[in-house]
Recover the amino acids of this structure.
């Protein structure tokens, strides 16, 4: 029997394999431009979206991606399931697995829990974000967005700004961007950094103004209030002073630089409302919507890898 193809992180993939994913994503992006945006690539395959934590972008884009590939996708509703009668998460997953599905896409609030679940079922598993740990599909769509903009990755300067401590996106992005030869600087005060952060080989600074004029990519992170059991930053005013993007700061960025954010944006915290409301022509360096669009094609490529 062929080994199942889980995607729990992108660590196992070589740079060549990552470039293959980017190339493959181009083919799927082309399908999404057609009038009939559907191919039979995964006809007969059954996929379950199992989100124990809330999501808009990841959940919906996986659903669209699966449908574009003609797979059958079922959205499992945690709130109306037997979990509410006390069934454990692992028993729930084993129950779903017994129905002979091919792939489960899982989001969970506990770091590393998706890896544990993946070991206990036959179906392939894609990690749609687990706690503060990994968000591999977000990292790949971020990389694809950068690659399509610059046509190159090696040597690009990226600053990742904000709540590194609580961010799975930051972890997955830092590892992937560094692997692909990008120079990563992290902008966060010590209280928004994990204690063992030396593990990542990146530069660290605590003030966005120290790097903003040099970077090609300014990646703003969401403040993860739902993961903060205490106040990690003195005030929004203080945050705005050292870490937020506003029009004044954007004016010193390089002309061809871009701004990214995984969403959802806390307006006037990470990015000012004024920037979020810019007209489309002024906003073409703000890639937040492009990231979302690219998310569908990237997830088609990942589903095809896991099941194709
Ligand atoms: N970026 C991201 O994971 O967004 P959602 O929580 O809406 O899926």
């Amino acid at each position: 029997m062929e080994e199942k193809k889980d995607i729990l992180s992108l660590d196992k993939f070589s740079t060549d394999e990552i470039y293959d994913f980017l190339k493959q994503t181009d083919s799927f992006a082309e399908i999404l431009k057609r009038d009939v945006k559907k191919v039979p690539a995964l006809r007969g395959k059954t996929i379950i979206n199992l989100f124990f934590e809330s999501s808009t972008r990841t959940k919906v884009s996986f659903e669209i991606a699966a449908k574009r590939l003609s797979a059958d996708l079922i959205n499992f509703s945690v709130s109306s399931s037997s979990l509410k009668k006390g069934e454990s998460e692992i028993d729930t997953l084993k129950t779903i697995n017994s129905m002979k599905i091919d792939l489960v896409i899982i989001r969970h609030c506990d770091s590393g829990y998706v890896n544990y679940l993946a070991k206990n079922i036959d179906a392939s598993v894609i990690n749609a974000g687990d706690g503060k740990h990994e968000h591999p599909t977000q990292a790949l769509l971020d990389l694809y967005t950068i690659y399509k903009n610059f046509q190159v990755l090696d040597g690009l300067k990226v600053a990742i700004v904000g709540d590194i401590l609580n961010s799975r996106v930051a972890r997955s992005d830092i590892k992937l961007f560094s692997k692909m030869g990008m120079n990563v600087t992290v902008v966060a005060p010590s209280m928004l950094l994990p204690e063992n952060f030396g593990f990542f080989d990146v530069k660290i600074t605590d003030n966005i103004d120290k790097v903003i004029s040099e970077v090609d990519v300014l990646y703003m992170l969401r403040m993860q209030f739902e993961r903060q059991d205490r106040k990690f930053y003195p005030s929004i005013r203080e945050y705005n002073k050292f870490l937020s993007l506003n029009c004044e700061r954007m004016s010193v960025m390089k002309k061809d630089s871009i701004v990214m954010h995984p969403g959802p944006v806390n307006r006037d915290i990470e990015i000012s409302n004024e920037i979020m409301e810019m007209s489309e022509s002024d906003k073409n360096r703000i890639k937040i919507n492009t990231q979302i669009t690219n998310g569908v094609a990237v997830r088609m490529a990942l589903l095809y890898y896991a099941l194709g």
Q: What stands out?
A: The pocket of phosphoric acid mono(formamide)ester is lined by residues 55-59, 129, 138, 262-264 (CB under 6 Å).
